[in-house]
Amino acid sequence: MISKTPQPPYYAVIFSSLRTEGDNGYCEMAEKMIELAKVQDGFLGAESARNEIGITVSYWKDAGSILKWREHAEHSIARIYGREKWYTAFKVRIALVERDYGFER
Amino acid sequence: MISKTPQPPYYAVIFSSLRTEGDNGYCEMAEKMIELAKVQDGFLGAESARNEIGITVSYWKDAGSILKWREHAEHSIARIYGREKWYTAFKVRIALVERDYGFER
């Protein structure tokens, strides 16, 4: 569940969001988008959790693969719905992962 | 709740974790650490959510302020407990936020 990303450098897209009330088709689309992201060139993994705030971090090989995913037709439609229906606020941060380390029992 | 970070560039520390069973003093320490982080030089904000996976993203002015926080005495003790008691696995990724954008209703 913690993404098995390669040695840095690679990119992270940190998506932080606050949801509107109700599902309004959100869950179905969220699952669809993650399945679609997985088959994109340069996709390295994603992690997601939500309590009051939702945080989804997706990992990408380079800035070009993020841009292509941003412009993907179905993802573009989902992004429009996001502003119209699903989120009261969100922030997207595009970040270059410079180093990482981990621990496993 | 979504951190009001300044114009990029700034740093994000993405902490992804899987917890052990039980609290074992975790919640108290987690709250203490966030209060302590808030008063560190260069701290810009933090966002946190947990379901099966926990994701905490903290934002920092520069790499130096991250390093100082890493070496902070109380935080160092918490980090040791993390490996001993609280986590079955974690990953820390240090990333330079190059651009961001957002939406608010």
UniProtKB/TrEMBL annotation, chains A, B:
Q: What is this protein called?
A: Antibiotic biosynthesis monooxygenase
Provide the species name: Gaoshiqia sediminis
Q: Which SUPFAM superfamilies match?
A: Dimeric alpha+beta barrel
Q: Which UniProt keywords apply?
A: Monooxygenase, Oxidoreductase
Listed transmembrane segments? none
UniProt xrefs under InterPro entries: Dimeric_a/b-barrel (IPR011008), Jasmonate_Hydroxylase-like (IPR052936)
Q: Which GO terms describe its molecular function?
A: monooxygenase activity
Q: Where is the signal peptide?
A: none
